[in-house]
Design a protein that fits this description.
Number of strands: 8
Structural class: alpha+beta
Distance between the termini: 12 Å
Largest sheet: 6 strands, mixed
Number of domains: 1
Length: 247
């Protein structure tokens, strides 16, 4: 199925993009686990549409006053000691980002993150602070030697997060994508060759109405897998019954 515009009417009104992104992540993870990854690896979707962190203010009193003996038919309650710090001298503005991602972990020994695929959301692009935060997260993956793929099909916000990372890391401007490229996928492979640290990249322009490509996902310097974005996209569309919306 050619790529659809999930972020503007009429499709956005009938199939919310948040639900579709979550389904697409699950489809990618299923595809990798079923057809691609060898034994010793597992793909896990990671979906958190924005952070909601609130202080839950409660009142705690003595155990003797509030806890009944469970053996006597009451309810045993764990009593915690709550420490309240002094008022903070600073409260800094923050931007807790959406996250729609698939992580690949090596399961031999301790579980270790070796690859990640990030689906860009509108909130990742809606202002400069969030674009920088997303770029910093991606740069952290690469600094840890984790292979990375970024997929941006957001049509409701401008900005190129690959270019944002290029600027943040002070890489040569020749590695930027053309400003006319609004939708894209970029794969990154961090590796060391002849005592030099390198990040190989595969930039791919995308477009509404076009099929999605296969992208490499590096799990080690000498081990890449193929991510069939189109197959996973078609599966996600089928799961969400897009045939009822798109004629």
């Amino acid at each position: 199925m050619p790529l659809l515009d999930h972020f503007n009417p009429p499709l956005s009104e009938r199939r919310p993009w948040e639900s579709f992104h979550a389904t697409w992540c699950a489809s990618i993870a299923d595809h990798l686990n079923r057809d691609v990854l060898p034994a010793g690896y597992v793909a896990l979707e990671q979906v958190s549409p924005g952070a909601s962190i609130e202080i839950d203010v409660g009142t705690f009193t003595d155990d003797a006053e509030n806890t009944q003996d469970a053996e006597n038919g009451g309810t045993a309650t764990m009593i915690r000691t709550v420490w309240t710090p002094s008022a903070p001298p600073l409260s800094l503005p923050a931007a807790f980002p959406d996250r729609f991602a698939v992580e690949v972990h090596s399961t031999e020994g301790e579980r270790t993150l070796v690859g990640a695929l990030e689906l860009v959301s509108p909130a990742n692009k809606d202002r400069a602070s969030k674009r920088r935060l997303f770029a910093a997260k991606c740069a952290t993956y690469l600094a840890r030697g984790v292979g990375l793929v970024i997929v941006d099909v957001v049509t409701s916000r401008s900005g190129n997060l690959h270019n944002e990372m290029i600027q943040m890391l002070d890489w040569d401007a020749s590695f930027r994508m053309a400003e006319s490229v609004a939708l894209y996928a970029v794969a990154y492979r961090p590796l060391r060759r002849e005592n030099a640290d390198l990040i190989e990249t595969w930039p791919m322009a995308l477009g509404v109405g076009q099929e999605l490509p296969r992208t490499p996902l590096s799990l080690a310097a000498d081990f890449c897998i193929s991510v069939d974005l189109e197959a996973a996209y078609m599966d996600a569309c089928a799961r969400r019954r897009f045939d009822e919306v798109v004629r």
